């Protein structure tokens, strides 16, 4: 019986680590079963219908107004944890309005963000000189993400080197290759 308990401990630890890595931040949580997380599905909804939406992407512009902040976001699909997917293509743009002041340094251009809120009336604006109709969200919760990079080295060189006389070759003598992996945290 004692051995079964010792086996259960590593399994529970592994499961808790896996679920912690993919959990939704509390600021993006909802009980709504009809929550929309797809940009194109959101566009097909009637603008008169108030629906709850969770979308994310890259911040394109931040404008502080008198009583609220307007944030233009280039939409990227999000995963179940609300993280924008860097490998997917942008799907369009939307506007999120946050009540009060938001520091444009914290919510700076190029940062990854996910919003949850309700649908508001679309507005017309421009992207460059192109006229664009932006879907609009009244934001009730947000989460800023960071992109972490790590280098993975594809090491195919042997770790034991034959030595001839007094000379042994070092790892630095062999070519190595690697890649940079970006992860949203």
From TrEMBL:
Keywords: Lipoprotein, Signal. InterPro entries: OMP_Slp. One of its GO terms (cellular component) is outer membrane. It comes from the Bacteria. Residues 1-29 form the signal peptide. This is Slp family lipoprotein. It comes from Vibrio metschnikovii.
